[in-house]
Write a structure and sequence with these properties.
Blueprint lengths: L2 E5 L5 H8 L8 E5 H7 L2 H8 L4 E7 L3 H12 L5 E5 L4 H11 L8 E5 L7 H6 L7 H14 L4 E3 L2 H11 L4 E4 L18 H6 L4 E4 L1 H4 L4 H14 L1
Parallel strand pairs: 1-2, 1-8, 2-3, 3-4, 4-5, 5-6, 6-7, 7-8
The structure holds cytidine-5'-monophosphate (C5P).
Cytidine-5'-monophosphate binds next to β8 and α10.
């Protein structure tokens, strides 16, 4: 169940393909975000699925319930494995997303929620969004909304995963970006954790981008991430 997801933050299929060709035997779980999806469209999902990878389609839907439901129906037909919405869209929107994602045979991709973006801090929460509660309280409340709407989990910091599981249940999935190898380049991430720390503190899936995509040997960096996250 636990796995390492590689963030494919590329702007074209050519670059993505060149990256995937660095892997000989493994078929990593991949995250496709807005940049790649908007550049290449649904064909990118089909191409990558055809190569045998699992896909987390990170499009963070947020719209009126009916629009999200219909958009999710389209995404579900792409045979993705995981996708997401903003919990700020309300429980009604999240329930509509599940309805749209559920295929005629009853199966559906995993659906997780973004609580508050990590680029939003406590000051912006109060001054711009007019949310008086603290960031941890807000994140936990949105996670609870997602759980009661029937979602499978949330995207969160590894630093929040343990508490979210305590509140929403151990089966509620935590998908955590902001993961770096010990001593590695942090880049623009503010609060980071190592793969081992993330596992010990409740992450079900770690999302790693640049530490793998920009490594001299991406396949070796991916194996290291799996080793540290799953076994160390
Ligand atoms: O390269 P890096 O490991 O920082 O990539 C992390 C990935 O996770 C990026 O695709 C980034 O957009 C995404 N992400 C994040 N923080 C969030 C949500 C998503 O870093 N809160």
């Amino acid at each position: 169940m636990k796995d390492v997801i590689i963030a494919c933050d590329f702007d074209s299929w050519e670059k993505t393909k060149a990256f995937l060709e660095r892997f000989e035997n493994e078929k990593p779980f991949l995250k496709i975000g807005m940049e790649l999806f908007y550049a290449e469209g649904p064909r990118i999902v089909k191409e990558i699925k055809a190569r045998g990878h699992k896909i987390f389609l990170d499009l963070k839907l947020h719209d009126i319930p009916n629009t999200v439901k219909k958009a999710m129906k389209v995404l579900s037909a792409l045979e993705i494995d995981m996708c997401n919405v903003h919990a700020a869209g309300t429980a009604e929107m999240m329930k509509a997303a599940i309805e749209g994602l559920t295929r005629p045979d009853g199966t559906r991709p995993l659906l997780i929620a973004v609580t508050q973006l990590t680029s939003t801090d406590g000051q912006k929460l109060r001054a711009e969004l007019l949310i008086e509660k603290s960031m941890p309280e807000t994140v936990l409340h949105y996670a609870k909304n997602a759980a009661s709407a029937g979602l499978d989990g949330v995207v969160c910091s590894p630093l929040e995963a343990k508490l979210i599981k305590q509140v929403c249940g151990q089966d509620f999935l935590t998908v955590t970006p902001g993961v770096r190898f010990a001593g590695g380049d942090v880049g623009d991430q503010k609060r980071v954790a190592t793969p081992k720390w993330a596992r010990e503190n409740g992450s079900d899936y770690i999302v790693m981008g640049r530490p793998i995509t920009e490594a001299a040997d991406p396949a070796a960096a991916y194996r290291r991430a799996k080793e540290e996250f799953l076994y160390e």
